[in-house]
Amino acid sequence: MDGSVQSSHREVEGRVLVTDFNNVPEEDGVRVHRQASQCDSHGTHMAGVVSGSDSGVARGAGVHLVRVLNCQGKGTVSGALAGMEYIRAALLAGPVEAVVVLLPFVGGFSRSLNTACRDMVANGAVVIAAAGNYRDDACLYSPASEPEVITVGAVNSVDQLMSQGAGGTNFGRCVDLFAPGDDIVSASSDCSTCFTSRSGTSQAAAHAAGVAAVILSSNQNMSPVQVLQTMLRYSVSNTINFLSLTDAHRLVTPNLVAAMPPDNGTDVELLCRSVWSERSGVTSTDSAISRCRQGEEMMSCSSYAPDGVYAGETVTVNDGQMECVAYNGPGGKGVFAVARCCVVGGLQCKVHASPKPGQDAECVGLQHHLTGCTSWSTAEILSGSRPHHGDRKRCVVKDGVTSAAVCCHAPSLECHVLENTSADKDEVEVSCPSGWTLTDCSAVSKGSAILETVVKGNSCRVHSAAGADGATGVAVCCRVRPPEQQQQATTTPH
């Protein structure tokens, strides 16, 4: 969805279908020169980034243009809604191959536009949106703020946040990943063989749309969230310097840059991501809620308080969907809820709460594996529940603490607990081995030290307050047993 496209450009010739949809506002001013090259500039560049024969990511992919931007690159919410309804009707009218809907524009927060995007994803389309170029929190804009959309920020040629004059790429928890968006060379509408460079999160979103198209070309039955998880799985991690961001934004912005997946990627790998809520209020009754996307299962739930003061977390079920709820502690300055959201074929999860405070919560049935533990107390949480695998798969708690066990089942799923103890350091890390995926990160201490845990990639990092006697990091690692091992005895990571 963009402005016009010069479909005769050598980069995209024969691959662009200009639909009969056209819903754009009048251009501002009385002396607007509507040269074709001006009207086509943004859309032509986008089409080249997605599928250009020389500059494209998914070279050879077909592009259908739904025009919602005028010659000045401006559109309206009503025009975008009409364009999305046009696409939805086209998808319902007849069977089509895998579809990626690229939204290389951004506006103020719009509940109606977000809802339309959510409905589009529910109909099976992968929807990818630009994060915006305001050097601001992407959650303040639409469609970037819609949780079901894949929202893309921009980095430069050395994988650092893109700057653009006084602006730059948006960031925050509503961004799913970043992609190249600075000084991107692609088709120019000045002539049918011209090229030009442009910058912005539109270019980054087009890059990500190309990656999504490549992923779908090898498996057209992938759901939108499987495409997202695959993109995250093969992204380059921890290359972006976030020092220019506030502490809160640095915490929740994903340090991931999109990359092309290998040709031999597997579709039976357990893929997980961490989903952060917005920060709660500061009263003792305030809470924060994090949810997974359609098609994901929540394998664990945790809470994070920057000042270390929180009352714990629990998993609730609302309209059939699990929710991770974190509670602010007395005198706390706000807490985040962090859901661990995962996909693999046949995955199903449910939650079992402890009968009463001080009693363990446990999984029932041989087929279900303990993948996460939650802890909640009316007093401040100092050390949470501890996952324990064995004859009884349970969450071990201290007196006065209420726990919940997240129990999951999938064909050939296996899970194990790994621990790492540090006697004298205030930080400890425990990582899942290659082939295993982290589903839960928790910590225990000998005394009453305040512990903070956070997931970084496939590792569980624990930070304890100064003067602590040491801390133990506890990670639950799961995988789908490889086919060649499914007839053999279970192996344990170490």
TrEMBL record:
At the top level, the lineage of the source is Eukaryota
This entry's Gene Ontology molecular function terms read: serine-type endopeptidase activity
Its keywords, alphabetically, are: Hydrolase, Protease, Serine protease
Active site, renumbered: 2, 42, 202
Question: In its UniProt record, which GO terms are filed under biological process?
Answer: proteolysis
Q: Which residues form the Proprotein convertase subtilisin/kexin type 9 C-terminal domain?
A: 265-344, 409-481
Q: Which Pfam families match?
A: PCSK9_C1 (PF18459), PCSK9_C3 (PF18463), Peptidase_S8 (PF00082)
PANTHER family reported for this sequence = PEPTIDASE S8, PROPROTEIN CONVERTASE SUBTILISIN_KEXIN TYPE 9
State the protein's name: Proprotein convertase subtilisin/kexin type 9
> Which species does the entry assign this protein to?
Collichthys lucidus (Big head croaker)
